[in-house]
Amino acid sequence: LDNIVTEKKAEESHRQDSADLLVFILLLTLTILTIWLFKHRRFRFLHETGLAMIYGLLVGVVLRYAIHVPSDMNNVTLSCNVNASPATLLVNVSGKFYEYTLKGEISANDVDDIQDNEMLRKVTFDPEVFFNILLPPIIFHAGYSLKQRHFFRNLGSILAYAFVGTVVSCFIIGLFMYGCVMLMKQIGHMGGDFFFTDCLFFGAIVSATDPVTVLAIFNELQVDADLYALLFGESVLNDAVAVVLSSSIVAYQPEGDNTHTFEAMAMLKSFGIFLGVFSGSFALGVATGVVTALISFNFTKLRDFPLLETALFFLMSWSTFLLAEACGFTGVVAVLFCGMTQAHYTFNNLSPESQDRTKQLFELLNFLAENFIFSYMGLTLFTFHNHVFNPIFIVGAFLAVFLGRAVNIYPLSFLLNLGRRNKISSNFQHMMMFAGLRGAMTFALSIRDTATYARQMMFSTTLLVVFFTVWICGGGTTQMLSCQKIRSCFLVCCRLKYSGLFNASCLMMDFLCLRLQIGPDGVERRSTKHESAWFFRIWYNFDHNYLKPILTHSGPPLNATLPACCGPLARCLTSPQAYENEEQLKDSDSDLILNDGDITLSYGDVTVSTDAAGAHTSGTPVGGVAVNSDEALDRELAFGDHELVIRGTRLVLPMDDSEPPLPLDSHRHRHKNETMS
Amino acid sequence: LDNIVTEKKAEESHRQDSADLLVFILLLTLTILTIWLFKHRRFRFLHETGLAMIYGLLVGVVLRYAIHVPSDMNNVTLSCNVNASPATLLVNVSGKFYEYTLKGEISANDVDDIQDNEMLRKVTFDPEVFFNILLPPIIFHAGYSLKQRHFFRNLGSILAYAFVGTVVSCFIIGLFMYGCVMLMKQIGHMGGDFFFTDCLFFGAIVSATDPVTVLAIFNELQVDADLYALLFGESVLNDAVAVVLSSSIVAYQPEGDNTHTFEAMAMLKSFGIFLGVFSGSFALGVATGVVTALISFNFTKLRDFPLLETALFFLMSWSTFLLAEACGFTGVVAVLFCGMTQAHYTFNNLSPESQDRTKQLFELLNFLAENFIFSYMGLTLFTFHNHVFNPIFIVGAFLAVFLGRAVNIYPLSFLLNLGRRNKISSNFQHMMMFAGLRGAMTFALSIRDTATYARQMMFSTTLLVVFFTVWICGGGTTQMLSCQKIRSCFLVCCRLKYSGLFNASCLMMDFLCLRLQIGPDGVERRSTKHESAWFFRIWYNFDHNYLKPILTHSGPPLNATLPACCGPLARCLTSPQAYENEEQLKDSDSDLILNDGDITLSYGDVTVSTDAAGAHTSGTPVGGVAVNSDEALDRELAFGDHELVIRGTRLVLPMDDSEPPLPLDSHRHRHKNETMS
């Protein structure tokens, strides 16, 4: 009989879990349907993530105030006194043994809450779920879809923003918040401990920017590729930096009695941890990526079985995360670099079908995980029980976040502009300042540990920062873009194809679009061969001559690029097939650079639209693989400019709803259609 | 300091978890690479699932015997005496509260084991993982990829095998096993209780057949479509029947003292539960499918955003499972019928890109889940701690399984043949008998509860049954097919396209293939219009005239099929778009029927191969949508026959390895290529 009762309880609990998860699924479904409506109506003031948060908030309110489930007291009331808290506990109930697993510590004042709010507790996920299940696909997708060419072109600046910028921002915010905390202590607004390390930790977690909403609009409006690369690259890398930075700050533990004073050794140790964990995760991620590339390079017949290929790709990418976590590195960081390596090398070895499949798979996972996190964020504002909202801290945090971003962007941009030929203009700087949104990573870092008073206050404040930035900054992106006169082109679309008519509004929009983008000087700046950074050039040469031939079927055969003395080694590393396929298989990188030519614009040419239909038939020249890397680089850059000319002659979609819009998500397909027509 | 220790422990535990999961991921990776090798070498004696089991066994042996991790005694030794076993336990450790969740009961003699085998315990998953995470995508995929036309053609027989057959098999096996148990009790081989309900439960769980290995070979060898539909349909539906049957048997609880005697009321109640749960799950699954179809029907512009469409499809399908579980029905069964409804209706409303995406997504999930389950099966033979291997029970079980299958197939086929025009021939019956493999569902049902002696014995025996059937029956499929002279055609392939040469071996293989398939009488039997079952005809008419127009963009407009008096209703239900699109959008069902014409054969025509290249250019006639359903049915059947003629003139791939094989998995693509050429 006792058994049956236990089974009934387990069943009841399972039902409840299913119902709770169902709430989230329905939330996501609702979000998708509304997003579709927004996309269909070209309503750009609210991104899907912002919408998911609003729905989450609504459901949170309902769960908190409208539903009261009488708690099953039997379920939770028991307490027993033991001397330690093992991970597994065996409980002896009149001769029967039951196994219990540790879920976590609960602060003493929550014990009553737990008994009261069975329902709210149920919809609260283990914070580690975010780190171990939801973040990895998001971060991997970011790495996998990083626009390769523009990323590498701006690599120096991106690294500067991501490393120097994040560390600077972290310390500025930390110092500023420490001032606030001191003030709060003075006027007695502080209800618990709040040390300098806590301030720094707060600085680290809110330094992780996540301009997903901004980038979505950039993508839709076809904003400048360099700006896109700078923002996206910075946000992706500073997530990684912030994760490692925050864990190094937590690891700062001076020895001796006073554990919250400055100590050089502990500081050095933290710094060592930062370097060790970051480089370890980086190495692991790159290593798994390279292994996958080598497998797909050597098992070429795997291309005949896209299912196996995709499964292998997925498993190898996942194993990066697990391996890093098992080794004590940071899985999320490893996954990011694994994604970048996969995009750069493995992607070229995959069959076209697998290329599509992997991209679509991670796109879907990213979409679901992201919206889930944001709707959970909305929900948790009402369902989390230990919120500590302190007005001074909140106002301080907003100021600090603003200040931190400003000190990150403006001085760094100034310094970078000293070295850059293709300067980061002031309107770009303002836009980057504006696009310092906080999102999934900040949330995941702040919810990870909400045990102490300081952490609870940080969590509550972080939620508000995320809400504000996503709604206000995300929603104002279009306005900000036009205010800053940053060139953007409303969705490029062969309208003639659909309507069969030439529409006057089309020409007008085109003209408006031109005016908007060319800017005051009327001449577009393009990076040319001579402007490309030395860093990029060195990297490109090494990559093109040695890495690509070893890891992919693209690039020149190794013995053409290695010195003569290395001939045997080159023959050994280059498969005979590489020579055979040399002509067929070309570098698919261009495929990854979605925004390359698309962004550029047909300036000063108002007769554009009349010859639009014909212009595309000329197609883009895709030659063989050049042996000389300089030549290849030149060609690649020239190729970009050539594309500019061809793609420039293109129509612009007017803002009415009567036309079926082209799929915004599937850039590539439009691309294909054009080359086919 | 205490906090830090807890955190360290949690981190250690997380690392260990990551490492364990990594073992499985690497196992799957290894399996994939080996499968690829097998596929490449056309080695058909071992299917991927069989291989996954072997690798699982090897890793199990290593974990069990080669690795000894000294257990952290601190972790598990504590016991405390309380009076009940609540789902959540609060433990008061010197003023701090820790929350523990119930994992399950442990038999008293395992308490020492637990402390010994930390490592083995770690690689043991919660059995509910199989039911709630791994099985749903497998079952959904089965429903989604069910070959619609042949399935409905044989619906009566499939339902008979699935319902009557499974129940008969369950009782036969139960009775036989009860005899064995009696014998064991007589000779004192029984170490615990084993009631008749336990025997019936065993009968229910081993009645779920899973001929995944056989069907994979059928697919590769292009075996008869009716046989394929019979086997696949039966196995898919009998999984559902077995799940509900086993839960009804568990629910059999006579009142009063003697809980293991026969009682009519309890029996009726069990029967009621069976009917209620099955029909409830069925209704829920179909309902969610219909809702998804309606959404995709009405939100037609959703087609422009394949990502949103795919995400919506995925979420709606998942919510079926959760909804069913939350309502107390069986999620797995609901998911099956949801998948079938989605394939029949929603699939037609999706954009072509989403059709591909959803198919590929569920194909991948199915592949990963299936191989994971089978490798876990191998592993658990060594890592599970409470195996009870009883020779009499095992031998009895093998006999019972054989007997149960025989009593299921032969008498039922005899009865069905009385009503069928297109008889199920005796070699088909032998093949169905042979293909009664046990797989993932049987395993998941048996591992769900291993608390009692009886259940442990069942679990151990079930594992052996699965191993034997998957390896022996799965491996012998090719032999059995040729032994039973069942027509199968080695992979159809336009060899000329690849080699540019006409190969003598090609002709020879073709000839052999013909001989094999035409059989002794030399005339192929084809189902014609007159042979199609009345059940199928009624269903087809209703579906074609009323359901398809309401739920999809295919089929005739409703007001053409409804009586004149229902005119307003018809106009209301049919969107104006349906009329517009009437011509463009055709029923994509033919897409789902992969094996339709492909299986049929060019008999008596040995000059086949010479005109093969030209024959395909004629293409398949795809007309508009016929308003009269009889006409449509006729055309559809005739169309199948027409395809027979066209596709019959096709080359057969010889058995050498030098040629790059066409992707076996992507039938559809080959199909496309043919129509394009």
From TrEMBL, chains A, B:
<feature type="transmembrane region" description="Helical">
    <location>
        <begin position="388"/>
        <end position="407"/>
    </location>
</feature>
<dbReference type="GO" id="GO:0098719">
    <property type="term" value="P:sodium ion import across plasma membrane"/>
</dbReference>
<dbReference type="GO" id="GO:0005886">
    <property type="term" value="C:plasma membrane"/>
</dbReference>
<feature type="transmembrane region" description="Helical">
    <location>
        <begin position="459"/>
        <end position="478"/>
    </location>
</feature>
<dbReference type="InterPro" id="IPR018422">
    <property type="entry name" value="Cation/H_exchanger_CPA1"/>
</dbReference>
<keyword id="KW-1003">Cell membrane</keyword>
<feature type="transmembrane region" description="Helical">
    <location>
        <begin position="129"/>
        <end position="146"/>
    </location>
</feature>
<feature type="transmembrane region" description="Helical">
    <location>
        <begin position="21"/>
        <end position="38"/>
    </location>
</feature>
<keyword id="KW-0915">Sodium</keyword>
<dbReference type="InterPro" id="IPR002090">
    <property type="entry name" value="NHE-6/7/9"/>
</dbReference>
<keyword id="KW-0813">Transport</keyword>
<keyword id="KW-0739">Sodium transport</keyword>
<dbReference type="Pfam" id="PF00999">
    <property type="entry name" value="Na_H_Exchanger"/>
</dbReference>
<feature type="transmembrane region" description="Helical">
    <location>
        <begin position="273"/>
        <end position="299"/>
    </location>
</feature>
<feature type="transmembrane region" description="Helical">
    <location>
        <begin position="361"/>
        <end position="382"/>
    </location>
</feature>
<keyword id="KW-0406">Ion transport</keyword>
<dbReference type="InterPro" id="IPR004709">
    <property type="entry name" value="NaH_exchanger"/>
</dbReference>
<feature type="transmembrane region" description="Helical">
    <location>
        <begin position="50"/>
        <end position="67"/>
    </location>
</feature>
<feature type="transmembrane region" description="Helical">
    <location>
        <begin position="311"/>
        <end position="340"/>
    </location>
</feature>
<keyword id="KW-0050">Antiport</keyword>
<keyword id="KW-0472">Membrane</keyword>
<feature type="transmembrane region" description="Helical">
    <location>
        <begin position="158"/>
        <end position="183"/>
    </location>
</feature>
<feature type="compositionally biased region" description="Basic residues">
    <location>
        <begin position="667"/>
        <end position="677"/>
    </location>
</feature>
<dbReference type="GO" id="GO:0015385">
    <property type="term" value="F:sodium:proton antiporter activity"/>
</dbReference>
<keyword id="KW-0812">Transmembrane</keyword>
<dbReference type="GO" id="GO:0055038">
    <property type="term" value="C:recycling endosome membrane"/>
</dbReference>
<feature type="domain" description="Cation/H+ exchanger transmembrane">
    <location>
        <begin position="31"/>
        <end position="482"/>
    </location>
</feature>
<comment type="similarity">
    <text>Belongs to the monovalent cation:proton antiporter 1 (CPA1) transporter (TC 2.A.36) family.</text>
</comment>
<dbReference type="InterPro" id="IPR006153">
    <property type="entry name" value="Cation/H_exchanger_TM"/>
</dbReference>
<keyword id="KW-1133">Transmembrane helix</keyword>
<protein>
    <recommendedName>
        <fullName>Sodium/hydrogen exchanger</fullName>
    </recommendedName>
</protein>
<keyword id="KW-0967">Endosome</keyword>
<dbReference type="GO" id="GO:0051453">
    <property type="term" value="P:regulation of intracellular pH"/>
</dbReference>
<dbReference type="GO" id="GO:0015386">
    <property type="term" value="F:potassium:proton antiporter activity"/>
</dbReference>
<feature type="transmembrane region" description="Helical">
    <location>
        <begin position="195"/>
        <end position="218"/>
    </location>
</feature>
<feature type="region of interest" description="Disordered">
    <location>
        <begin position="654"/>
        <end position="677"/>
    </location>
</feature>
